[in-house]
Amino acid sequence: MDVRFDQKVIVVTGASTGIGAAIARGFGEAGGKVVVNYRKSAKEAEDVVASIHKAGGEAISVKADVSKAEEVDQLFQKTIDAYGGLDILVNNAGALMQRTPIEEMPEELWDLLYSVNIKSVFLCSKKAIPLLKQRGKGKIINVSSLAAKTGGGGGSVGYASTKGAIATFTKGLAKELAADRILVNAIAPGIITTPLHELSTPEKLRAQLNAGIPLGREGAPEECAGAVLFLCSNSADYITGETIEVNGGILMD
């Protein structure tokens, strides 16, 4: 299956590194016009844009903290200014922050997790919906996690609960937008080789997690991108409200 996104406009949040970067590159290599959103990693975002240009695609980078409504407004306005509309939104921005047991977790950290991981999905979806309706159809993809169903590893209850909220939000929004031909789906990555694990998962815990993967290895960001591109292709036009588990068999539902 040759998946192409020629002339399609795609916003990918949190796209400077890891899974988001792989998703942005995948769309760019498939002919899309990609808006590479970032919050702090400007150089990394520009590297993603450069790689898309090298592959013959179109892309711009836009700095925005997608947990803040005014910056989300700016992100989508810059998208319209550059490309005139929107066809696909990928809500990828999110973070584990740090592993903290609930009894030790400051309220500020809890609020930050929910702001970055789920409020951002609400804000970006709300802004994208009118633009997708103007096209007469569209796709929204949310990035959940294996942790949504397992409760996460040690000290990640807060993170896992935000990813569970994303899974529920995906189903509800899919029902809400079905009549408008806007399909809403999600992917749920398992143990993927990304900066998130480099920063937040101790070696011993990571080894324990990896030992439970039937395929015997961590996943690559590009393997998550493949699932996203499939869901956004015409081949997935009868799929909505679904979450695809990308986890090497560690959880089989």
TrEMBL record:
PROSITE patterns: ADH_SHORT. This is 3-oxoacyl-ACP reductase FabG. It comes from Halalkalibacter oceani. GO terms for molecular function: oxidoreductase activity. Gene3D superfamilies: NAD(P)-binding Rossmann-like Domain. GO terms for biological process: bile acid metabolic process. Homotetramer. Keywords: Oxidoreductase. InterPro entries: NAD(P)-bd_dom_sf, Sc_DH/Rdtase_CS, SDR_fam. Belongs to the short-chain dehydrogenases/reductases (SDR) family. It holds the Pfam family adh_short_C2.
